[in-house]
Every structure is written in structure tokens, then in C-alpha cells.
Amino acid sequence: MAAATQKIEKVMPLLLRLEKNKNDYFPQAVSLGPYHHGEPDLAFVEAFKPKAVELFVSGGPEIYDESLYRSKIVDIICQIRGCYEESTIGKYSDDEVAAMMLHDASLMIIYMEMSVLDETDQQPDELMMNKILAMMDHLGMLTLAILSRDLLLLQNQIPLCVVELLMDLRYGQGKGEYENLLNRYMNMAIFGEYRQKRITRKPLHLVEAIHMLLVLDCEKTTRRCPWLCCFNAEEDQSGAASTTCCSCKLLKKADLESGGAETKTTHSHGITHRLRKSLACKNQGAAAAKKDNIKSFIHSFRSVTELKAKGIHFKPSPTQSLMDVNFKSNFFYATLQLPEWGVSTKTKVTFMNLVAYELSPSSPANGQVASYITFMKSLMERPEDVKELRERRIFINMLGSDEEVFNIYKDINTHGADNLEIFRAVKDDIQAHYNSSVKTWMAELIHTNFRSPWTITAFLAAVALLAISAGQLYYAVNPN
């Protein structure tokens, strides 16, 4: 199965202009791939990589021979070169690229194997203990902690096909060791525990794999084309909603007429493809644009605290997909479900690089992570909003103060590139509840008068006194 994207791209220069965010795209301890290879600041871990190769292949079916593994990488060297920008990868010979991939992949595999040990109850065998001790002795805890961060950077990636190839050579092909390790590591790195969430498509690199994991089951939220030119979803013959907009149909028709060179015209070609669709349906989308103008995307509700006062309460979503945002409104009570997320020192780096991945020209993403960040930022105007989300177990705060969490989300810049259509239905439902005079009056009455057990007790006592007084009055008038 082919990978979703074709290139490991550098972070776009526009994203590097803000100095306060610039460091979130660059490695601090280890280089993976050619973009940061040979940088002096990363020499400490670079010197350990030959040892990592030896540790990785030890105990395998073949006697340790780096040239054997390198020769297998050379067999797919054209595929590897095609994953990087020619201006960078062209500086290295085939042998140099193969050695680079072997060293980087070996270190990455050993670190991933170490990271998932806490998830199992089994004691590590002798080979694994040797790997752990060697990593600890040579690198230390600080470097290992930074290494986990560097693996999340968009322009610090190697093709996962290299990792799969080496693991098949080391552990045997067809045993599923690569898929098992990748899914376990991503669950541990992102969620802190193994949740048995698995990706179903082969990603090109780790950042793409994490993106897939976080936006699982997002189809229900992204039914319609995100561009203002085309907002009407249709139904196919089976009655299911079709996500193909008028521009997709025009392009598909043109492709078929030209010989079918590109017949896949769904939302799978990133920003460039969406711009092509926008141009293709310029005339057909004029009527839809009048109906769904930009005003329909502007909502007046603000902050968690304000929504709570309007009778909207918060609870964790049943899944941890960033797209699993749901809203349910009752007579005077409503519930907004948001995905649970552990906020740590790596949260900003993770989201910044996922957004950078979505903004890459060849990315198949549809702005899902950027849309989630924008939506969450719209709910947080002050640290008190974070406190409410933390108390509802939506945020698992591993930083210390709510203000730190607030500042992390505040500093993540999506550059207005989020998908306006994602979460639109949820926002519309929230706005409808927010605008309902009856619902908000009842909610504000309860929120104002029953904010603590003492006010509830006082109210019940007052009701009881009124009932007693009414009873006494009744029996005074009707003594029999």
C-alpha cells in the first residue's frame, strides 16, 4: 500500500518568521534524515549511532554486518531519495544516504522499543536490557527525554519504509513487528498509554502517522467541501451523503475526458488540490456562496466560563480523536463533548509540527488539527476556562498551573488555515442554544441561585417553610 504523501517536506519559510516559535521546528539532540545531518550541535547523539546499529542487529538471524543491512537499503535508494527535496538529498551519494538511513532507523527503533516497555508487564530479555543500559550509559536521561521531542518534528523524519525493511530483516518478514511497534509507540507517545488505536493506511513518516491517529473517524465531521464556493453535499444512489463537491465532479469529468490519468479527485491532494477545485467551481459556486457567506461562520459565543453560565456543561468524548467533538442540547441543559488531551512540555511542539504538516503543499490533510486548535482557543479566554476543562478531565494538566496550559494554546498559531467547515455544525448548535432566551434564562437562574450546596439548602428550606405555612393556613381555615 502506498504512503499517503510522497515527500518529507521542510517547514514552510513563512512559519519560521516568528522567533518565539522557530525553535519548535528544529531538533535539539538528534538529526533524522538529511535536513539536519551533520550539524555540530547534534554531534553527541550522532557519535552513538554506529553503536545503535550494532545493538539493533545483535541477536538477529545474521551475524552483525552493517554492509548487509546497508545493501538492502541501497535496493530502495531511489524511493528514499524521492522522499526528500533534491537540493538537500542530492549532496549525498547512495552509500552515504544508505548509511544515514541505517544509523537513524536503528536509533529510532531502539528508542521506540524502550518506550513501549512500560506498557507491557513482561520483563525485558537480556538483549533488550543491553540496549537500555547502552542507551542510558551513552546518552543519559536528559538526552533521551529530548530525543522523544525530536522525533515529532516535521523536517526531522526518515521514511518509515526503511524502518519496516530493517525490522523485517531483523525479526522476520510477515510477523507484524513493525506495525505493532509503530502503533504501540504512537499510543504511548501521544496518549501515555496503549489505547489499541491503530492506523489503517501506511504513512510516509512518523508525523503523518501521528496525524492519522489523532483524526481517526473524522469523516462524520468533514462531509462538505471546506471552500466557500461549494457547500452542498449530495446523496449518492445508496442514500449516503457524498463528500464530492461540484468542483470535484468537474475535475473528475475533465480527468475522464483526458484519459483518466487522475481519476481520484476526492480530498486527498492537500492545499494545491483544494485550490484547483476552488477555481474549477467558480461559476457553479456563486449561488452557494451567497447562501453560505462568511457571516455564517462567525459565532458570538465566547469562553468555557460563559458557556457554562448558559447551561452548557463539558465532558470528555468517548474517543480521543481530535474530531470527536459533539454537542447535545436539552430544554435548559446542554453538553459539549471534547477529546481528552494530556498537556505536557511536548504539546506545543506536537501541534506546531502537525499544523506545519497540514500546511505542506503535498499534504493530504484537510486542516483537522488546525481546526481543533482554533476551536479550543475560541473556548479559552483566560486560565479560569482551562480550570473548568481540567476539572472535567478534558485537559490532563502535566505542567503545573492552568496558566501554563492557557499560554501553550495561545502561542500555537494556525495562521488562519483551519477548515471552516470542520466543527461548523457543532458551533451552529452551540449558537442556537446560546441564542435561546428560554434555555439561557433557565440556565442563568440555576447558575446564579444554585452555585453552591448552601444556596440549594437555603432554597429547599424556604420551600419547606412555605409548604408548612400553607399547611397551617389550610388547617386553620378547615379545622375538620
Task: Sum up the structure in keywords.
two-stranded antiparallel sheet; mainly alpha; single chain; 4 domains; three-stranded mixed sheet; 480 residues; 23 helices
Architecture overview:
The longest helix has 25 residues. This protein has a three-stranded mixed beta sheet. The protein has 480 residues and is mainly alpha-helical. It is elongated, with a radius of gyration of 27 Å. Helix 7 crosses helix 8, helix 7 packs across helix 10 and helix 13 packs across helix 14. A hairpin with a 4-residue loop joins strand 4 and strand 5. The protein folds into four domains: 202 residues, no CATH class; 59 residues, no CATH class; 147 residues, no CATH class; 28 residues. 51% of the residues lie in helices and 5% in strands. It has 23 helices and seven strands.
